Q: What sequence folds into this?
């Protein structure tokens, strides 16, 4: 599970900071989360193969999370993309993108699917053999969702030494991984537990930006491995957090603590602060495992 | 008259090159021409005061000339802009911008005026005391205009030594600048030519991008001081220029020669070329005064 932060600053792109976009890799799948202006340049800078991005999740329709999407979609066509592209985001996103494609008479070289969201309840919006993605309804000035990525029940891991000891044919391996016992030729039943190790625990990642302090989300993100929670402001600007429906570092840490997550990653910093160190200091007073996102940083979990 | 090239490469923004945007300054007015993705970051990089930009001219609705506009308009609001902003561009531009502002529930802090264009004839679209702007209809895959900026008839310049010799009161100076003769108290008429120098010649700048080779534009840009003409391709890709309705360096130079302009500035280079030097070489075989635009370069004329 790998998180690459392409941009994690609030509001406007600047010479040295970028608005929100993240690449999240899990089970060899690559998901792009949010797409502020300049995201395609950040992808190039970090040498991400554009063709590996097949699913893009947009949290909400504020510019610092969205305005790079039309350019990325257009660039995919200029690169002669053929793979389907799926975009998940608030209702209205399809009209915004299609209006611009139509005005430029530039249709995509690939199938472009929109999955528009409008529910205020958490929904399962993506599922494959290895991963599920659910929405996390957030409370912001406009309709906003976080996204919860979770590995699916892993198969048991074969204990190859034991399996060879019993001279079990390779055709039974999938059955063993699925938890089945094996009947040998002499009728002996070998318990699955003797042949396997426990599966790796299912990993999970919750992306929560933008949102006001909202303990209502805690049950949805309980015990996740990694929580990215916006912290636009420090405590000294708590009044601005409330007014603009953003969070402080302390509020993000409070959510992390209540949800008993393993790691909290902070981001979406207001550009008013000369340094982001104080975000970590303030959050650590509440919750111990705090990491600071920054543009270009990758985390392996 | 100063031209600052913020971006001059075709198609997609990359780590080291930017799509089209230029700042053109004349008579202390600042005009932004085109606004590809990342333009606001280029403006910051070159320390341009955002509040000095009151007029933005968009040539056409392809992304590499447009996709930075919504972000710039949004950032103006975040910076609490109060001055009116005027956007000139093809019909459809207003709907594109307003749809996105509406979706983000982010209205502007200032008056935003759209001047939508749909004529296929050259039109006067801007005029103040010092400058006029006319459209230059271009031939591209979608409706496209170049823009012709021209100083207005300058006033004559007072020859202060002569004026003092005749002991002419300061209240006559404006009349003299406007070309009027002066009647002295003894009834003598002093010819304006004795009191003034000829005005500076009216300077002019023609921005022509994107366009296929189109000699039809020559009468509109005859004798301009500076012609920026797109040259997406070298001669070896002339077939691509024709197919995509772009120009080669030689075609740009041919227009410059026929229009008898003073300087030709090339730009809108395809990103397929490792170096842009060959554009100058090919163009100079046709027309002598060739300058190469590049991101971040300024020209004073």
A:
């Amino acid at each position: 599970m790998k998180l690459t932060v392409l941009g994690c600053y609030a509001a406007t792109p600047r010479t040295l900071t970028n608005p929100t976009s993240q690449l999240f890799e899990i089970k060899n799948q690559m998901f792009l989360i949010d797409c502020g202006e300049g995201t395609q340049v950040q992808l190039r800078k970090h040498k991400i193969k554009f063709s590996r991005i097949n699913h893009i999740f947009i949290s909400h329709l504020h510019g610092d999370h969205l305005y790079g999407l039309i350019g990325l979609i257009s660039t995919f066509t200029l690169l002669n993309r053929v793979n389907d592209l799926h975009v998940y985001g608030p209702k209205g996103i399809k009209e915004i993108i299609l209006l611009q494609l139509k005005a430029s008479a530039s249709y995509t070289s690939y199938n472009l699917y929109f999955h528009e969201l409008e529910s205020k309840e958490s929904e399962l919006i993506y599922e494959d053999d290895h991963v599920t993605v659910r929405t996390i309804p957030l409370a912001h000035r406009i309709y906003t969702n976080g996204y919860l990525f979770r590995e699916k029940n892993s198969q048991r891991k074969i204990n190859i030494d034991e399996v060879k000891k019993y001279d079990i044919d390779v055709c039974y391996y999938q059955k063993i991984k699925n938890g089945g016992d094996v009947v040998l030729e002499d009728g002996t039943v070998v318990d699955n537990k003797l042949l396997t190790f426990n599966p790796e625990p299912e990993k999970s990642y919750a992306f929560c930006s933008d949102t006001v302090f909202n303990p209502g989300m805690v049950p949805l993100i309980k015990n996740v491995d990694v929580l990215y929670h916006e912290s636009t402001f420090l405590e000294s600007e708590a009044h601005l957090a409330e007014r603009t429906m953003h969070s402080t570092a302390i509020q993000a840490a409070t959510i992390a603590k209540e949800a008993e997550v393993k790691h909290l990653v902070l981001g979406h910093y207001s550009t008013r602060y000369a340094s982001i160190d104080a975000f970590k200091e303030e959050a650590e007073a509440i919750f111990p495992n705090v990491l600071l996102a920054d543009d270009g940083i990758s985390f392996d979990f």
Notes: Chain A has two domains: 2-154+200-300, 157-197. Chain A touches chain B through 35 residues (CB under 8 Å).
